[in-house]
Specification:
The protein has 346 residues and is α/β, with parallel strands linked by helices. The protein has one domain: Alpha-Beta Barrel (TIM Barrel), CATH 3.20.20.70. It is 45% helix and 12% strand. It is built from 14 helices and nine strands. The protein has a six-stranded parallel beta sheet. The chain is globular. The model has no long low-confidence stretch (mean pLDDT 97). Bound molecules: S-adenosyl-L-homocysteine (SAH). The site of S-adenosyl-L-homocysteine (SAH) has 18 residues, from loops.
Length: 346
C-alpha cells in the first residue's frame, strides 16, 4: 500500500477500504498531508467556491443529566456553573444574529429536563415565525423518536448529534453504561428518517482512540450519509477524569477533515471552535483542508464562559458582533468570504 495511491483513490472514487484508511492514518508523511489537504480544499472550492457558511451558535443550557467522561458540563462535575437561557434571551440572540447576517440558528445544550418538547417546540415555532427565512438547528442530545418527531413538526430543520465514536467498545470507554453506541446510532438514523438535515461527527484524539476507530468513524459517515459532520480535537477538561489525557492534534484533525471532504464532496463541514482552540490559526487551516462552515457564538456574554465543555475555549470574552467581524477578517485573510445564506445541503 502507498499513501499517494490512497489519496488519489479518495480524490477520484471518493472512497477507501478500512485497511487503506488505517494505513493512511498511521503512515501519512508531511508531504502527503499537504497533498491531501490541497485536494480536499480544491474539492470544497468546486462545490462552494470561496463561500463560507456561518451558523449562529446559541448555548441554551449548561445543565446536563448525562455524565460523558470527557465533557466539562457532565452531571457529576460539581464545579460547573449551571445556567439556562430563557425564551426571551434565546430570541434576543436570534434578533442580534439576524442583524449580523446569520440565517441559521443552532440551539445547543446539555440534556436539561427543563427543555421539554413543549418548551423547545414553542421556541422553535417562535423563531420560525419571526425569521421564516432562517434554518433552525437543534443539538440537544438523544431525546427519542417521539421527541425528535415533535421537534421536526414544530419546524426544526436540522439536528446535530455527533456519533462520538462508531466503535461500541470505544463508546463504552468514553461514556457511562446508560449511554450506548446502539442508541446513538439508532438516534441518528431516526433523525434522518424524520427528514432532518442531520449532523454526525466525532472527536479526534479522544482517549483510547485507535486508527481503526477513526477508520470506522469515516466508514460510518459513508454509511449514514449525514448532511453535516462536526469534527474537532478532543481537549481535556480539568474537572474530568480525562484531565491528564493529551489533546487531539492539529495535524490529525486536518487530515480527517480532508478525508471527509474527499469522501463526501458536498457535506457541510465546520472548522470548529475546538480546532481554533488548539491552534491560533486552527479554523483557517480547517478551511484550507476542506471545511466550509464556521459557527460563531451568539450566546449572551455573561454565560459564555460557563458552557465549558473543555479547557481554554476561545471567544468566551467576545460579543457576537466582535466574533463575526474577527471571523470575517480571518476568512478574508485566506481568500474566503462569509456569506449571508441558509447554506442548506444541496
Ligand atoms: N448534549 C448534546 C451537545 C453536546 S456538546 C449532545 O449530546 O449532542 C457538543 C459536542 O462537544 C459533543 O458532541 C462532543 O463531541 C464535543 N465535546 C464535548 N466535550 C469535549 C471535549 N472535552 N473536547 C472536545 N470536544 C468535546
Amino acid at each position: 500500500m502507498n499513501g499517494i495511491d490512497i489519496i488519489r483513490r479518495l480524490e477520484t472514487e471518493h472512497t477507501a477500504s478500512r485497511e487503506e484508511l488505517i494505513f493512511l492514518l498511521e503512515n501519512i508523511t508531511p508531504e502527503e498531508q499537504t497533498l491531501l489537504r490541497e485536494k480536499a480544499c480544491e474539492q470544497a472550492k468546486q462545490v462552494f467556491d470561496n463561500r463560507i457558511y456561518i451558523r449562529g451558535l446559541i448555548e441554551i443550557s449548561s445543565y446536563c443529566k448525562n455524565n460523558c467522561y470527557y465533557c466539562g458540563i457532565r452531571r457529576s462535575n460539581h464545579n460547573a456553573v449551571r445556567y439556562r437561557l430563557t425564551k426571551e434571551q434565546i430570541l434576543g440572540c436570534c434578533q442580534q444574529g439576524w442583524a449580523l447576517g446569520f440565517r441559521t440558528f443552532v440551539m445547543q445544550g446539555g440534556e436539561d429536563a427543563y427543555f421539554t418538547d413543549e418548551v423547545v417546540c414553542d421556541i422553535v415555532r417562535e423563531i420560525k415565525r419571526r425569521y421564516p427565512d432562517c434554518a433552525v438547528t437543534l443539538s440537544l442530545g438523544e431525546r427519542g423518536y417521539e421527541s425528535f418527531k415533535r421537534l421536526r413538526e414544530a419546524g426544526a430543520d436540522r439536528y446535530l448529534l455527533r456519533h462520538e465514536t462508531a466503535d461500541a467498545a470505544h463508546y463504552a470507554r468514553l461514556h457511562p453504561p446508560e449511554l450506548t453506541w446502539k442508541n446513538r446510532r439508532q438516534s441518528l438514523f431516526w433523525l434522518k428518517e424524520l427528514g432532518f438535515q442531520t449532523g454526525a461527527g466525532f472527536m479526534v484524539g479522544s482517549p483510547y482512540q485507535t486508527a481503526g476507530n477513526l477508520a470506522d468513524d469515516l466508514l460510518f459517515i459513508q454509511e449514514l450519509q449525514p448532511q453535516m459532520c462536526g469534527i474537532g480535537p478532543f481537549i481535556p477538561h480539568h474537572d474530568t477524569g480525562f484531565r491528564d489525557e493529551p489533546a487531539g492534534t492539529l495535524e490529525q484533525t486536518l487530515t480527517l477533515l480532508a478525508i471527509i471532504r474527499l469522501m463526501q464532496p458536498r457535506i457541510l463541514l465546520p472548522a470548529t471552535t475546538a480546532l481554533g482552540t488548539i491552534h491560533p490559526k486552527g479554523r483557517e487551516l480547517g478551511i484550507l483542508s476542506g471545511a466550509n462552515v464556521v459557527m460563531p457564538n451568539l450566546s449572551p456574554g455573561e454565560h459564555r464562559k460557563d458552557y465549558a465543555l473543555y479547557d481554554n475555549k476561545i471567544c468566551t470574552g467576545d460579543e457576537a458582533a466582535e466574533c463575526i467581524r474577527c471571523l470575517s477578517l480571518r476568512m478574508q485573510s485566506i481568500g474566503y468570504q462569509i456569506v449571508t445564506a441558509r447554506g442548506d445541503f444541496q
